[in-house]
Amino acid sequence: MTLHHKSVMYGFCDLLILSCLFVSGFNYGYYCKYSDIYDNLWNHWYAVCGCLTLLIVGIGLCLRHYKKRQFLFENFYLIFYGLISNVICSCFMLVDDTNTAFYFGFMAMAVIYLSCFSYIYLRCDPQGFRPFCLALGNTSNFFGFTIGFALYNEFEAKLCGWLLLGFNILMILLLIINEFLHYYNYQNYKISFDLVYNLLNDEKLLYASNRSVKALFIGRDDYVFKRNTQYLVVAIAFIILLEKSSLYSYTFLQLTWSATYAYLHSQYLYLSFLCYTIGCLLGCVLMLRYKPKLIYLQFAVIKIMVTSAILLIYNDYFLEKCFLFLCLYYLSMGVYSSVGLQMLIESCPFLYTELAIAISYSLEIVAMEVYKYETLIDDFYIILLSMGLSTICLTLISIILILIFLPNSKGLIEMRNNLLGIYRQPVKHYTNTLHSNNYFLQLEVPATSKVFIDNNRIFHQYPPDEKDKQITKY
């Protein structure tokens, strides 16, 4: 088999992960449309089931890693159980029992989402491609969300049930093919592209305590200790993810639906999520060229300006004026939507990464349920003004936090050390040609003095030590 075919096979598991994220997003999008039409408190029980599943799986993985002291790359086995739950969900949809179907759908969505993002960040090399890969996974997830939201029809649950069943059977077949490719050595999905991570994982040193990690660098002159900011950055990442959850604000969603009907004279309820998905795809492309800090700064400022414009031009009788601004609002929000998740995954301790992903997704689900209560207020402009101002303030705070605390993407072990306050001291580069070609002489360069000789020649002479000077004197 040629090198080209080897590389294609090696990326098969990564493409499979993106496809599974699409299926997970499809479930969530279908539920969001359902909960919008049937707005009652009973819908909260589905979200509670999904959050409990996320926390149970996250805690279980954390305990398993603590016991084994290794990351065992069991993500595809968990995804398999998630797909089986999705098959059961689709079977209930085929018999029009959506109430039971959503319980299995939320369990499947939680397991697949957690396993996929837990796998994506490990497969990235230390050259800075992790933001792009996480943004690509985020795009695939919300593309499925948009498709599920657009295909929902309260009178045709069987149609979506057949589609979901077909998707899941296809994913299960691809999982079996993936295992065969791994078994016959056409690919190896149980390794990371980060070689240092693989070495520590093989030696069972990956989940060592922070105190043990710091003890390895005590007494070394080429490293310096600074303040430990790991848990501070993790806490800030949750604030950034809270700002991202404003996507589900029912005030802006209802305004978008009304403005779309006024501008296009047709109801495209999925248009807001379509703009958001296009923004995710644009952000994924920009991650290949620009740093996440710059992308977040630019498009978060655009979001603030657009939100201010919507609040200024809003008029109950001319909603079509807000249409283009609302499209740009969701587009700009989608561009930087993966930065918060990237910050959380890269800064979290290795032992608690899956648990942190589970908590973040649970908070997103809870936020989506809480935003439903915005519709209980009768005066629409008051709730629009309050939500718009709170969104602007939260986005401003997020911009400041991102610019100060978002670490530059690099190798996982190096990022872990830097967050713990362990930094490698830079090696000084000297202009003196005598020492520029020898690394060991760069570490401690003795002072030299210039002696001018005839014909404009210069001789670099080592001055004697202080003790030698005294001996020479006497």
From TrEMBL:
Record's protein name: Major facilitator superfamily associated domain-containing protein
Keyword Transmembrane: yes
Transmembrane segments: 12-31, 43-63, 75-95, 101-122, 134-153, 159-181, 230-248, 268-288, 295-317, 323-344, 351-368, 380-406
Superkingdom to which the source organism belongs: Eukaryota
UniProtKB keywords: Membrane, Transmembrane, Transmembrane helix
Protein's UniProt keywords contain Transmembrane: yes
